[in-house]
Each structure stands twice: as structure tokens, then as C-alpha cells.
Amino acid sequence: MFEISSIKHRTSCNYGEKVTFLEKLSSSVNHRIEYLLFVLGFSMALIVATQVFFRYVLNHSLFWSEELARYILVWLTFLGTTVAYRRKVHPGVDIFYCKMRPSARQIAAIVVHLASIALFGIMIFYGCQFAYFIRLQISPALCLPKWTVFSIIPVSGLILMLHGITFLLNEFKMRREK
């Protein structure tokens, strides 16, 4: 009997440590991405402003600026999604959720997290397939391999998966504590 209870205790402590580790990792990744988003947003604004100056003041267009700004916008969108998901600021309809009992809310949250994790797995799988499919294509103005631009799809899927698993484990932890 003593062995079973001590194993159970070690397992629960280990579970808490995993949640703490994942929470710290998720928070750290999110923090770094927020800085990257600032750099990308500032760079995009600078590139577009430079293009406008060159086009309308110097009457000479920069051929690469529009393509680079477009690719930065793609990265901003996908990385911004990860930050919004981590901060739980995505829009949602919670009319039914608010009317549920607390126990039903927890079950609904778990189901939502599981569905989200499944979606992120699809993003990773098909994002890798798509990046591999276009691996030989290069962008016209920048001569960049297009797979580098579209690799953000599986990368953001991995980051979203990290956040989703963290949320799911935290939900299980809260359910266990009650």
C-alpha cells in the first residue's frame, strides 16, 4: 500500500513539473516572438516608407520592396496568431459557454484544446508537405527559395501546438485540483 501511494505522489509531482516546464517554455517562446514581431513590423514599415520615398520623391521604384513587405506580412500574420492564441485574445462566441455549469465548462475547454491541437497537427503536416512541394521555386525579385517563406506554416503550427498542449495540461491540472 505504501508503495502505491508513494508512486502516485511522485507521478502527480512529476505531472506538475511537466506543466511548469511547458508553461515556462511556452511563455519564453511567446516572449521572444513578441520581440520578433516588433522587429518584423518595424522593418516592414521602414521598407514600405522607403519604397514610397523612392517612388514619389526620387521617381525610382525599388523592385524588391513590395515582395519583401508581402513576405514579412505573411510571417507577421502567422507569428501574430501564436501570440494571440497564447494571450487568449482570439475572438470567440461564448454565448453557450457562459451558460454552462463549471464542470461542463472544463469539459468544453478540454474538447476545444484537443480540437485545436488536432488542427495544429494538420498545419504542421500539410505545412511541411507544402514547403517541400515548393522547395525548388524561387521568388522573382528577391531570389529567395519559397520554402523559406512558407516554412512559417509548420513553424507556427509547432508553436501553437506547444501553447495548446500547455493549455490542455493546465486544464487537466485545474480539474485535478478541484
**Radius of gyration over alpha carbons?**
22 Å
Helix and strand element order? HHHHHH
Helix content: over 70%
**Largest pleated sheet:** none
In DSSP terms (H or I, runs of 4 or more residues), the helix count works out at: 6
Unreliable stretches: 1-13
Q: Mean pLDDT, nearest integer?
A: 87
Distance between the termini: 25 Å
In brief:
With 178 residues, the chain is mostly helical. The protein has six helices and no strands.
Secondary-structure map with pairings?
Layout: H1 2-56, H2 65-87, H3 95-99, H4 102-133, H5 146-150, H6 152-177
Helix pairs in contact: 1-2, 1-6, 2-6, 4-6
Which characteristics define this entry?
0% strand; 178 residues; mainly alpha; 82% helix
Can you characterise this structure?
The chain has 178 residues and is mainly α. The protein has one domain (2-177). Helices cover 82% and strands 0% of the residues. Helix 2 (65-87) runs parallel beside helix 6 (152-177). The radius of gyration is 22 Å and the shape is elongated. Mean pLDDT is 87; it is low at 1-13.
